[in-house]
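User: I need a structural model of 2-oxoglutarate ferredoxin oxidoreductase subunit beta from Streptomyces olivochromogenes for a docking pre-check later this week. Nothing fancy, just the predicted structure tokens so I can convert them on my end. Input:
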Amino acid sequence: MAETTTGSADTIEALTLVPKAEARQSMKDFKSDQEVRWCPGCGDYAVLAAVQGFMPELGLAKENIVFVSGIGCSSRFPYYMNTYGMHSIHGRAPAIATGLASSRRDLSVWVVTGDGDALSIGGNHLIHALRRNVNLKILLFNNRIYGLTKGQYSPTSEVGKITKSTPMGSLDAPFNPVSLAIGAEASFVARTVDSDRKHLTDVLRQAAAHPGTALVEIYQNCNIFNDGAFEVLKDKQQAEEAVIRLEHGQQIRFGADRAKGVVRDQLTGDLKVVTVTPENEAQILVHDAHSASPTTAFALSRLADPDTLHHTPIGVLRSVERPVYDTQMADQLDTAIEQNGKGDLASLLAGGDTWTVVG
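Assistant: Understood. Predicted structure tokens for 2-oxoglutarate ferredoxin oxidoreductase subunit beta:
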């Protein structure tokens, strides 16, 4: 990544700011000396291994990579990465990471968060980071439950979910994190699964190369409080009919012998799944992750039924170029210095727009 020479000027400038590693690195270099402490069988182990295995591909010095997390099981992540990191406060990881990425453009900044952390108390912070297009990579672990606090329903739990906090079933309609991100004008949105190491790594690779905010939703199994939540997407036989693997520039087809496909309904404009025939084969959509309009990406995100998860798209749904917030901010600061010289914080604080309160 550090030697990339294609893409926008923003991309090239951002990459050249980050120092490269002096020597070739391996997965071992990114493993910290901390004992990994999640429940045996937790999907977080698979994600951690994939990220540690992928980090050497960046070719960056470990000291110039930072992982910021909030609160939750997934938020222990920074402890286990041999990079800089911060275990921050509930829901605020995107805000803290925004400040870091904006002030230290020589860093590669990653956010690790969960469905409860990001979409409940952290909802506002997440959507504003996405709309600003800060140079962050956000990994959103979605297990559809609150794991750290022992099994309450979360913002992604399905309607009717029986938990400790909803003994008669949840009444809340769940968030679709991918739909939410696309609605917030995110420039890169993807979904993958914890147990599919190859797919997860490929999505991480594309997210890392993207200029601006990249959100990756990772379906992650909590085998203690919500075991088997994504079994339909992991069981080989069921997954063949349920998982829609998106590839830019390719027809959206899936199933045994790729016998099913996605078309646009001529009456409603919605997307629907059909059995491919000679008559309708030309109507099968070709995936365009780089389309300027988010309309089709959003429609794809709505295909998955929240209860059964049948027809769930995975892969990169959207990847478009937009101005990067921290680059624009740096340009403004440079312009201000050129026009006015370096600022004086003391003078600003004691400026003319002050008053004295008399007791």
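Before docking, keep this in mind: Residues 325-340 form the longest helix (16 residues).
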